[in-house]
Amino acid sequence: MTIQPTTHQDLASYALGEASPDAAAKVEQSLTASPELRAGLARIKDALGMLSRAELHEPPSALVQSALRLVGPRTQSPTWLERAADAIAKLVFDSVATPGLAGFRSSATLDARHMTFDCEGGEIDLEILAPNVGSGVHRVTGQIAISGELLPSSVGYVLHGSGNARTSTIDERGRFTLELTGGRWDLRFVVQVGDQERVIALPQLEIG
Amino acid sequence: MVLAAAKGDERAWRKLVHQYKRLVYSIPRSYRLSDETCDDVFQTIFATLVRELPAIKDPGALTKWLMTSTHRECWKAAKRDRTHQGVSLEQTSRADLSAELPHDRAEHWERQQMLDTALSNLGGRCERLLRLLYLSAVQIPYDQIGETLGIAVGSVGPTRARCLAKLAEALGPLDDADVRVP
After folding, report:
1. What are residue A124's DSSP bridge partners?
2. Are the C-beta atoms of A180 and A150 separated by less than 8 Å?
3. Distance from the CA of A203 to the CA of which of A6, A45, A102, B27 falls in 20 to 30 A?
4. B52 to chain A, closest Cα gap in Å
5. Is the Cβ of B17 closer than 8 Å to some Cβ of chain A?
6. pTM for this structure?
7. Does B120 lie at the interface with A, CB-CB under 8 angstroms?
8. Is the ipTM of this complex over 0.85?
9. pLDDT by residue for chain A (208 residues), tens digit each?
10. Cβ–Cβ of B10/A72 closer than 8 Å?
């Protein structure tokens, strides 16, 4: 009768305590005669010890998916901040630069600054109020009036270089309100043209 | 893989996330941080890794970078929680959480990562069986394991022995006596 040599699976069964008494006796006999098998059993016991002390938790699938999306093609359209502007509005009036003009736009005082920009066949008006004492925050109200098929939806604004972008909605009459601290601001208007979006940028706005 | 991921290779990044996801998630879990905080730590670490990858010159240093950064993020999160809850860190179950990763914990996590990689390299039925048997949060009965893997209940034991032998081979010899089972 041929005696089968002891395999690593036999050693593993033995280490797990699952070998029959006969199989265990055979393994023990083989171990006495073979340094290689003794090393093999030590490795199996090492592996079993590591498994027994394993402290590995499976993260939720949604969490892994969010990490995977950090590199590779984007599944969502870029935000207003990530897009290049489709058009840049042109400054056509600034009450600070031309304080002597007549009419509503001449009402520039130390408390308010009026600006008008031309864009897409329409215009954007801004009124920048001086901050309340101690607050340092300028209230900016404005209105965007552009051709009928373009529907303004939001205005995004970010303090230049800060990366801390914010968005404000524009109402059905094109009006919006922002609160800006002193500094250089980038403003972009998102307008809907059918199911497409266009981004209109203002020249950088220096406040304060 | 690390160099390719640093260059924006999507496949390399996927591989890297899957290779290290359990390590990054298990460290905050070990400090019993809340589910929400564990999620925050995980997201912060991978978002930081995307930015820092080009600066990690030695791919072999990645495990250490991940362990150290994740531990540090846990410490910061625990400090934030302490501030919010108005209790000291020592009064919480996270009293063992220090600013720096202790040497023995670093060794522990290094071995956990080694085990995780070896299991992943096994793949197939062996990986699934060993993870179900040893890494599940609750003990799963043999009959359920057999059903999940599509094998007879009587085959689970012998399959476990075969897979354990394969894992031992994948791990190779370990020179540190503290992982040996007497």
Report:
1. A117, A144
2. no
3. A102
4. 13
5. yes
6. 0.60
7. no
8. no
9. 456 788 999 999 999 999 999 999 999 999 999 999 999 999 999 999 999 999 999 999 889 998 998 887 644 566 666 677 788 888 888 887 765 443 334 344 567 889 998 886 678 899 998 887 777 888 899 888 876 666 777 888 888 777 678 888 888 778 888 988 888 898 988 887 666 678 888 988 888 7
10. yes
